[in-house]
Each structure stands twice: as structure tokens, then as C-alpha cells.
Amino acid sequence: MRAILSGVHQKKGKQVLEFELLDVTVPLETAYVLFVEKNSLASIMKPISKVLSHNIIRVNIDAQDFHFQSSDQTEFEWQIFLINNSLTNKNVIQVESEYLSDRHQLELTSYYQFNSDAQGMALFNIRTHQSDDEFMINSVNLTDVDLEITGYNKINGTLIKNQRIILKSHSTDGKLEYPVSKKLFEGMFTVSIPLTDIPQNSVGELFIEYELNGKEIKQRLIISKSLAGQSTDIQLPGNREITLEKRYDNGILVKEFAGASLLQKVGAAGGKASTMIDVIKMIQEKLNLVRMRFLFKSGHSPYENTTIIFESFGGRQVSDSPYAIYKVFKTLYPGINMIWSIDRSQKKFCKENQIAYVVRRTNKWVRILEKSQFWISNARFPTWVKKPSYVTYIQTWHGTPLKKLGLDIENVSMPGTTTVKYHKNFVREANRWDALVSPNDYSTQIFRSAFGFNNQILKIGYPRNDELINTQPEDIDAIKEQLGIPLDKKVVMYAPTYRDNQFAEKGKYTFELPFDLDDFRKSFGDDTVLILRMHYLISNALDISDYSDFVYDYSNYPNISDLYLVSDLLITDYSSVFFDYAYLKRPILFYPYDYHLYKEELRGFYLNYEKDLPGKIAENSKQLLEEINHALAHPDMAANEKFMNFYNRFCAINDGLSSLKVVNYVMHQIESGM
Fold it and tell me: pLDDT tens digits for 310-320?
């Protein structure tokens, strides 16, 4: 028998769940529905309230019953089971779902939503302790004449009264107010803002004001889903254009500006020539790939002299653990032939530092790669790169896993692949690695499961972190001077992760700092500087030219360990940088401004994000500034029990000699003739 959640109805502040049953073979008199919360394993049993037919049943619930007071849990994820507990037969069936609901407010600070997991099983999600200054809407669209907004006009069955939509200017105190008077459906409102009301050359943000239980409420309008499928751009007479944009915090911006002139439109048409150039480049790249595949299939024999190929992040940098290992090799064994595999962008760096190199995807690159005896890399080589039997491939990887990897990603949504194909390619590539470097037991277990890895693991810590252990205070001052950072100021480092939803179009990425630099300068600017370490794809999307007196962008600086060393405080969100920064026993703050959106829509986490982190979590920019102030006043975390528990779990095995241990491993292979 199968059970499928096929509908949810709101009735007097309660929820009526409708289930479709397939292949029913037993009577339902003793059946009931069981809800099990995935984290706490709490359970709630609900009887069948109505049998509509042989295969349709209903169950009444009150969503308020499905969350409870907990100091460390604000998210409740309930799985649903149908239990038939007759004397002769007991069946336990997990309920599937074909019903995905919108977000419904329980209170100002909590909501519920019905979803399904990667296997299509029903989930009943409840989130508490959310911000009370946000109001979720369903849609926002531009028509030829109006800006149209739809949303719910009830909170858990209680009618919202006297609703007004506010369009507030970013540059002035001006605001436009529109009362909500129309219903879209029962329980939903719609409001239309005439486009002719929107001021020229303006940027405005949307808010809502209303009465609830006699209290006046004002909130920002937000929308958690993407704006895909909605109308977000309109051309108006008089050379006007209006666009809608979703902010980093899910708020909605309304922008009015002058449209493109006739001359600009002609110029844009001429831009099609660049599209043709892109097509030609794409054809050339494909032809080059065919040539590479052919060259790798040609027979090669190893060099007589031992040769090691190093590569970092697919050739984009000369950095990270491979570079740390390379420097030890150059000191101890300069007679070994060592060559870096690089993109053309790294040629200048290699020449300035007397580093032998070969440019990727050239004939010479194929020959050197195939004739070398050792490959040392922190990322995967393309699947079409052939690994000869005499090559020892050492994979250093590039971080302690926080976000799920490889086989542990249940649903792969990247273009050009499927989940099955992605998993197969990942396992095939991982098992070309002869040895994989691991920083701790936690990572070792994940690498085994996520990579399907069956070869040797070197649990020695990451070589790149040797610098964090061995650097002296006078060395840190020298790094500050090299970077141009004042020696008499504290340093806050902001290093967020790259989000998959920051991709705008080919070659273009978006990012907006999730806190106000003017507020930061007002609070800390006299004795503190801010350094930024953004993902390379979005590092050029920021304009900080007005803040050059206290903000430094080191997104393209190759050695992130130097940035750790000069920083008194790290702020991050989901990036695994905090695992490395913890070696310094300095404070770490977490600012996951889109945590629940990121967790639900993108990849999941291995750690419990709300329990296992070594620092405090700031939920909004005001709290972030307060926590920065506290952290800078308490720079040493060695006496913090929670922090040190994290340190002992993730950092303790690295003794500052990890690079040397990899070098010794390679030398053992050479000396034993393996």
C-alpha cells in the first residue's frame, strides 16, 4: 500500500490533511497517522478524522502542536507515516507527497510549510524564532500599467486588518501608501500600484503595515523564492524603464530609470557580433578538447628523473596545500623536477617567484602530465585526463566539509548532468587518487562515504595550515606591512561562501554586502579595518570605492592563510574557512543572513548548524555589529569551553608538520621504487 499527501486545507486556524491511498488491501479502522520529528525524534499521533472513500482519508491537525520550546532548536522537520495496527497485521508506510505548500504564518515569528525530500517523501516543516520584521508575499509582477503584489491576509486563521502597502524611497523620506482592498482568493489579497506613481530615477523598497489583534505592525515585504517566471522588467513610454530586484535579504527593490536611447539600442544590436565571437571561441574550445582527448590516448613513458606536477584549484592559483608541500620540497629536495600546472593568468606570479610551470590544455601540458610520476592537487582533474599506471596521485582536497559533497548530495541540479551521472563520475575520479589528505576523523568518515573512496587516507592535517601554527608575531606584522594594513588597528575579516543562486547569466555574478558599511564605519572605523575575501566569481561584483579608508578587498590574494593571520576576528556564513581559522583560537562569528533559504534550496550540511559551530550566530545586521564589538573585546578563545571542544575535534591533530609528512610519504614511494 502507498499513501500520498495530496492536499492541505486551512479551516478555522487548523489544518486538514488529505491523503490518497493506493493498493489498499487492509481495513482502515485501526489506522492512524504518526508524525516523527527528524532531529529530536519526538512523535505525535493523529487519528483519521474522516474516510471520504475507499482511498481518500482526512486527518485534522493544529500546526501549533508541532513545535516546542527548545534552547537549541528553531526548525522542526516532521516525517509522516501511516500506521495500520490491526491484530493480524501491522503496516508502517512512509507518506509520499505531491503537495508542496506556500509558507503560512503561525505567528509573527513562526511559520509552517509542507515540502518533500529528495526521495519524494512528505515533510511538515515548522520554523520558529524568525525575524518579526518580515512579511512573506507570494508574487510580485510588473504589468503594462501596475506593480501587482499578492499575499495572504490571515495569520493562522486570524484576519489581518487595515493592510497598507508602502513603497519607501531609499534616497529620501518619501513614501507612497496603497490600501489593500481587493481579494485574489479567499484568504489572499492583491494590490496594484500604478506605475505612473513611481518617481523618476528612484529606488524604493516595499513594506506593509496592518493591524493584528489590536496591535499596529510594520514589516518589510520579502519573497523567498526566486523571481523566475515573474515579470520583473517593463519598458514604458517616455523612455522610462522599471525593474524589480530581490535583495540579499529577500527584500524587494523597485527601480525606475531612463531607458536605453535609440543610439544605445543600435549599439546593443551591434553587440551581436560579440555573440558570434563567443560562438567561435566555444567551437575552438570544443575542438581543443577533442585534441586533448586524442593526445591523452597516445602512449607515454615516464621521465627518467622524478617529476612532480602541482596544481591548485584547476590551475587558477599557485596556493593552498599543494603550494605548502611544494615549498618544503624546494627546501629539502631541490634536485627533484617540480612543475606547476597553471592557467595563463598565473604566468607572471610563477616568473616572479622562479617557479617552473606549464600552461594547462596545451600539447606540452599533456606530455608533462603524462610523463610525471607524481600529481599533487587540491581539486579534481577533468575525467578525460588519463592517469598512467606509474603515477601516484595525491589529493590534498581544499577544506573540512560543512556542505554535503559527492554521493551525499541527494539531488544534483547542476546543468548538463544528472544525479546518477554526477555520482558515478565523482566515484570514478576519487578512486584515481592513491592517497587523500584528511584533517581529522570527522573528514575521514565523510570522505569515505561522500567520495566512495577506498584507497589510502593520510590523516595528518592540511599542509596549508602549517603556516598558522608556525608563524610568529613579528611575521604577522611583516604580512600586515606587505598588505598595507595599519599595524595599530584591529582587523575584521569577512569571508562568505559562494552561493549557487548568485549566478545571473553567463560570465556575470551578483553580490551585495549583507550589512551596511556606513554602520560598520560608524561603529568601528576609528580603530578597526575590514578585509573582504569573496569567491573569485563574485569578487568583481563589489564596489567599495567610497570606503577605501577602512575596507580592503583581498579576494584575489592567493594565500588566505596570511589573511587569517592578520585578522582578529572572522565573520563567515557557510564557508568552511572557519575550520582553518579555529587553529588560531581567535573569535569567529557566523552571519547566515539567508540560512533557511540556503539550507532548504541549496545543499544541506553535515554539522548541525545551530548547535555545532565554534562561535555565535548573528541573525541580523544589528546583532552582527553587537557581536563584533563583544568579540573584539575578547580576542582569545582558549578559555571558551565550547570553542575548545570544537578545536579538539577538528584541529588538534595538526602539529605544524603536515607538509613535511606528505613530502616524506612521496620520498618513501620514490625510495621504495613504488
Answer: 999 999 999 99
CATH topology of domain 136-258: Immunoglobulin-like (2.60.40)
264 SS3 class? helix
Q: Measure the CA–CA gap between 153 and 164, rounded to whole angstroms.
A: 11
Across the range 438-466, mean pLDDT stands at 91
Phi, psi of 5 (to 5 degrees): -70, 115
- 99 Cβ contact list (under 8 Å, min separation 6): 5, 6, 7, 8, 114, 122
Residues 459, 387: Cα–Cα separation, whole Å: 24
Tell me where in the chain the CATH 2.60.40 domain(s) lie: 2-127, 136-258
φ, ψ for residue 238 (rounded to 5)?
80, 20
Phi-psi region of 394 (alpha: psi -120 to 50; beta: other; left: phi over 0): beta
Mean local confidence (pLDDT), 215-219: 92
Strand ranges (E), 54-157: 56-61, 75-85, 90-94, 96-97, 104-107, 110-116, 122-127, 134-136, 139-142, 146-152, 154-155
CATH number for the region 467-651 comes to 3.40.50.12580
CATH topology of domain 2-127: Immunoglobulin-like (2.60.40)
Instruction: Quote the pLDDT of residue 428.
Output: 87
Kindly state the cell numbers that stand for 467. Answer: 603556516
Q: Burial level of 248, CB count in 10 A (0-12/13-18/19+)?
A: middle
Strand partners, 588: 570
Q: Are 482 and 572 in contact (CB under 8 A)?
A: no
Residue 671 has pLDDT above 80, yes or no: yes
Count of residues in the chain: 674
How does the average pLDDT of the chain come out, rounded? 86
Q: What whole-number distance in Å separates Cα of residue 216 and Cα of residue 212? A: 7
Does the 288-461 domain belong in CATH 3.40.50.11820?
Answer: yes
Q: Which of 338, 329, 280, 272 is nearest to 311 (CA)?
A: 338
Q: How far is 7 from 20, CA to CA, in rounded Å?
A: 9
Which H/E stretch holds residue 25? none
Rounded Cα distance, 488 and 491, in Å: 10
What is the separation of C-alpha 339 from the centre of its chain, rounded to a whole number of angstroms?
A: 33
Angle at the Cα of 571 from the Cα atoms of 569 and 574, rounded to 5 degrees: 140
Residues 220-242: pLDDT tens digits?
A: 998 877 676 678 889 888 888 99
> 45: Cβ–Cβ under 8 A, 6 or more apart, which residues?
32, 33, 34, 35
For cell 569578487, the residue is 539
